[in-house]
Amino acid sequence: MSVGDTYPALAADRGAELRVAGLWLLVLACAAPVFALGLGELVANWMTPVYSHGPIVVAMALWIGLRTLRDEPRALRRHPALVIWPGVLLALLGIAGGLVGTLGRIGDVSAYGLIPWIAGVLVVSLGWVRARRLWLSLALLLLALPLPQVLYWKVTTQLQAAASELAAWMISAMGMSVYLDGNIIDLGVYRLQVAEACSGLQYLFPIVAFAVLFATISREPAWRRMALVLLAAPLAVAMNALRIAITALVVEHYGVSAAEGFLHAFEGWAILLAAIAVLVGVMLLLRACFGRGTQGGPMLDLDISGTGEVLGRVLHVPPARALGVLSVVALAAGVLVLVLGSSQPEAPGRTTFDRFPQRVGAWPGVRGALDPAVAQVVAADDYLNTTYFEPGSMAPVQIFSAFYRNQTRGAAIHSPEICLPANGWEVSEIGTRELDMSAAGYGRFEANRAVVTKGTERQLVYYWFEQRGRRVANDLAVKLGVLADEVLHGRSDGALLRFTTPIDDSAGGLLAAEARVRDLMRQALPQMPGFIPF
Q1: H helices of 192-320, where?
Q2: What confidence score (pLDDT) does residue 502 get?
Q3: Fewer CB within 10 Å of terminal CB in the chain, N or C?
Q4: pLDDT per position as a tens digit, 176-196
Q5: Average pLDDT over residues 471-496
Q6: Residues 105 and 492 sit within 8 Å (Cβ to Cβ)
Q7: β-strand pairing of 426-437 with 382-389
Q8: CA-CA distance, 403 to 413, in Å (whole number)?
Q9: How sure is the predictor about 435, in pLDDT bands with cuts at 50, 70 and 90?
């Protein structure tokens, strides 16, 4: 089919191609300042093992989209782009997301705005009838985006616990002694720390992405493709557990140094390639057991013929006035980014925690340091880790605080609700309680309160998030507050503040622990504003 058959007017006016190309370039140029931060953050994430699959996903999404346009009925190619209002709404939503993310200096939010922006431009260019056929390509692009930090830690923490328990079972089944303390695998002569025991799960998202990609281009029946996707997460857990179990076997027979060499060698692409091989093996096994299905032929549809020709049609898409309107909107948003982004106030100064008093009132204290592996996971700019002793009884209360100068560029507060189970503590009770710290200058506020147990030990934990003069109990509310304050006030600093004390049933139990914690709070909080600015 010639261009004249599809768009007679354009065949007669070759200059229209230049106008269309110029309009597309204008749309991209105007939107660049709005999404520049998001694109930069996206590329930075793709350079890490967790999201290294991103470029492959984007390439596959583009290829599948081109195949969809290649195979569309000829009648659709003549279909005028009349219904475009959904595209305008989607594009405006994308611009809003990019604007909020860029002004809030949260690249992930800006990157999320790219999806509705791309969808909106496609609908405006092709019309709703044609563009909606590209839904699969747009859905695949979601796999290239980083997961929000709140969801990331909650998902990986649960899977880390499952991997650690499975690994401990495997090691025990091989006849070796093992002790599981949260996510720490203790082999006696060697301990796989939290970071080591869980590092294999950084390939969870690539494995899920490849499972979805295989399912997308598979010719197999729908139920088999769905089974492949559902297998991805358990496969990631099992591969990591197997890695840990083999490490224990290496320790048993060849020593610690050999195990450390194995850990290094079996990380990286080795896990991912092994998992992909398992996925392909499962597909072949299902085909061998249940036949080739109704479509027959090859297992994967890898046809690329004609996709290059489809790219040429971009120049033959009739220009829509709405594209010009979107360019103006994007340009206005870009100017807003340049104006507001260049004049951000600085966060107030603070005193570092090494100056925090080791004696608070009548409470003497002993300063401690975090284990280097734990400090790396916490990734705070400054932290306080001091244990104070109640006058008279000398019962301990630990104050821990992690301060972050910027919570918008990768750094994030780790909620104790996630970290405590990872360290072997079982949360037997959790909720919020109102604290009245008006005398300490903090007013009344809601704080998280938990009772945790490990073996015969019990502890009472109070914690909340200090967010620029506000006390926040909910970690999702923290993220939303950081975004709003960064946009409105140019600040994203904040801290976690946690008080922990043992519950001793022989010395007053929970009531005594409660009174002890609150007493230290009243003594210590008046000191905090200089270290955690309001």
Answers
A1: 194-198, 204-217, 222-254, 256-265, 269-290, 307-312
A2: 94
A3: N
A4: 888 777 667 777 766 665 444
A5: 84
A6: yes
A7: unpaired
A8: 8
A9: very high
